Structure formats: structure tokens, C-alpha cells
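ugh finaly. both done.
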Amino acid sequence: MGSVRILIVLLAGVSAAAAQDAPRGNWQTPGSIQKPGEIQQPRGTWQTPGEIQKAGEIQKPGEIRQPRGTWQTPGEIPKAGEIQKPGEIQQPRGTWQTPGEIQRADEIQQPKGPWIKPGEIQVPKGIEAVRVTTTGCENRLSVFADALFDFDKANLRPDAEATLKAALPEIAKATGRPAYVEGHTDGKGTDAYNMKLSEARGRTVRDWLGANGAIPAATPIKASGKRVPIAPNTTPDGRDDPEGRQKNRRVEIVFETCKS
């Protein structure tokens, strides 16, 4: 009986030792998920090359991210708020202007008014046509005749009143007594013709100023024709001097400062 017990104990010990050396756990079937320490297989689904990833999806290493949004066809104008894609040419915005059209605000303005042809003399108007000079006992307020009269005319042009109105404050500031209104012409034409024209132009200006209360309506008229030029009518070599002749065509309101 004692021998039997000893044999049973030995068999139990061998069984325990055999159990201690056996691998623990289950073997992994090929294709199943590996245990810690083993090479992990990628998890999730593979993305087919060329597919667009979903929002929030993390791009996998080595894959190329596809551009998002729609491609712009060359020549199209980007929509408001749309960001231009690299490499594309930005199309001009707004409408093209047809030659000769009037441009809108914020565009380059075309010059307004008539063009001055080469060789033409610009006619001063408004206050630019008024000159005040003082010599001795006289204050002279001179107005360019070209701003008041057409060629060979003594009646006021439609735009002449703007120049005469610009002269009114200067007349009001002038010191002395209005002595006379004097008309002048350039050097072209006969002396008799220019005397008559200068007198008629002086009277026209006197009447307008008198009607507007600037000077007495009975202020005397003086005709000087071409006898008192303030600039040469010709150049030193005898050629015509249009700028000089323009300065000579004038009407002057003369104030005496020495007489009471």
C-alpha cells in the first residue's frame, strides 16, 4: 500500500511539471489578431489611391491627399470669396470699357472739356482774366477783352458775365474815384477802325458795370485803339505775336487816387 502511494505522488509531480512547461494560451490562427509583442497588422480599411478622404479622417502615411473643392476651368472668373488655386491666372474683375465711353467713379477719368489745338492761345476767364496795377495817381483794373468779346465784336459773349462778376470784388476794393473806362485793341487793322472798336467795347463794359452798381452809369468812355500797347504785337524778327496781341486787347477801369 505504501508503494502505491509513492507511485501516485510521483505521477502527480510529473504531470504538474509537464503542465508547467507547456505553452500557455491558444495558438494564433494565421490572419487573426496578434497578441502583444507581435507585429501589429494595420487596422481599419485601406484607402484606394485617388479617393477623397472623408472629413475628420486622418490621412495615412505615404498617401497623396487629393485637392478639395472644385477645379476652376481656365478663363472662368472666381466667385466672390473663392480662393484662387495656385498656378491659375486671376481674371480681371469688372467690365471692360469701350473706347470713347465715359468711365465710372474709381476708374481713370478722361480729360473733360475741349482740347486746345497746338498753337492756340488759351483765353483766361473769371478772376484769371482780371489784372490790377497801380502807377502814380492811378489804379487800373484791366480785363482781357478775349474773355468778354468774340473777334471783331463789341457785344458781350454769353460767358462774359462770369468774368465781369469776378471783377466786382476787385472794383469794390479799389481806392480812388472812377475816372473813366478805357478800351484797347491790338495792332492789327487801321487806326480809325481800332479807335471805333475800342470805344464800343469800353461802352459795353461801362454799361454792364453801371447796371450792376459797380461804377456810376455816367462814367466817361475813352478810346485808345492800338495806341497804348502793353506788349509787343510782333516778335523781334517781325513775325506775328499772338500772345502779345492778346494782352493788348483789353478794357480798363481807371481810378484816380490823387484827386479828391
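ok and the 2nd:
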Amino acid sequence: MLTILCPISETVPPAVFQATMAMVNYTAQKGVKIDYVGITERTLVDTARNTLAREFLKTPSDWAFWMDADMILPKETIVRLLEVAEEKKAKMVTGVYYQRGNKHWPVLWTRTPELENGQKPKVINQKEYDQNYHVGMFTVPGPEAREPFKVHSAGFGCALVHRNVLESTDDPWFRFIYKQCSEDFYFFVNAGKKGYELWADPSLRLGHIASAPAIYREDCYKKMEELETNIQPIK
């Protein structure tokens, strides 16, 4: 049994509504019972997520599927993330989506990646990096990547979380800490401290609505090519 949770701060774009309805219909056809759909009105995002988490724990659902109101999700999204959770025996699985602005990096981070070339990744300020355990390095799946992999933290635009994670971590689960972390980092890092691993599935083509177009995987690579960005693959 599953609950869908979505903080809403403004009008939901038609493309998001259409894609979400298709996803719900497909999920039900595959035999997954959707027990509850939780939404919030305009409020601070950490407050919204905490409110939704409390509502979820009142339901009999085992899983919470978290999405944002600016995400275009393929119909098979929930079913695929459940498959990954079963395959990896994971309690947290995220899809891979990309920033709307800047360089369109994935909303995905790894704390201490191992690179195939054997080098250690460098950060601008190692001391600050070491002191702030919430941050990580952008993790860019290869253009043809399809296999799930473990990461440190991610956004909450497309995340599947088992109720055990919420039951074994403290309320408030989400906190925005100025100059340190966003509410989603806070959640995943604290869950990691309890031994829960976060798996990322790059096989889904997720859209993140920007001011004009939705941002997809190919936009990330196009921007890297324009900026002549060098990326080192993780082992």
C-alpha cells in the first residue's frame, strides 16, 4: 500500500497534472494500492514536508512516494522505484532529475566518491566541506546509465521512502538550516546515520519544469558540452 505526497505552493502546471494522472492509473493497473494522496497549500517547504510526513504516518501505507508540483514523471515511475527497492532491499529510492537553472546538474549528491582514474575529488574549501556533513558533490550519471547506484543525498522531487525510515528518525524530519543544508539534505543525511541507504535510479526520464521548458537529462549534457565541462566517472 502506498501514499502519494506533494507540497503545492502555486498552480499545478497542466503537464504535471496529466503526467501524474497517467502515473496513478498505471500504478493501480499494476496492482499497487494507493491509499491516500496528501497535499499542502502555500507554506514553507520544510513545514509542508513535515506536515505531510505526519499525515502519512496516520495511514496504513508502507511506502510514501514524494513528488514536487513541478515534476513531469513517466507513468511507470512509482512501479520502477518499487522494483528497485525490492531488488536492492532498500528503504529509500530516488529518481534522477536535473536543476532547472544554472548548469542543469542532477539534484543528486555523493559525499566521498571513488573515481575510476584513482584521483581524489577536490573541493574549493576542504575545511568547510569536512565540517558540513550535509553537503556532497554533484553526481552525474552517464548518458547511457540505467543501473541503480548509491548516493549520499538527493532532492525530494521524486523519492520513495518506507515508513520505517520516518518511524526511526525524529520529528521534525525536514529542516532548512541557513548556509548549511536544505530540508531534503537534512532528511537523507539523518536517515543515513540510522543505517538507511539511498539508491538512485537513472533509468527514468524525469522532467523538471523551468520558466519555459522542462529540463531533462540531455539538457545537462548539452550544457556541459557548451561549457566544456570535464566529468570524472565514479567506480
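summary for the 2nd one i guess: Residues 2-226 form a domain with the Spore Coat Polysaccharide Biosynthesis Protein SpsA; Chain A fold (CATH 3.90.550.40).
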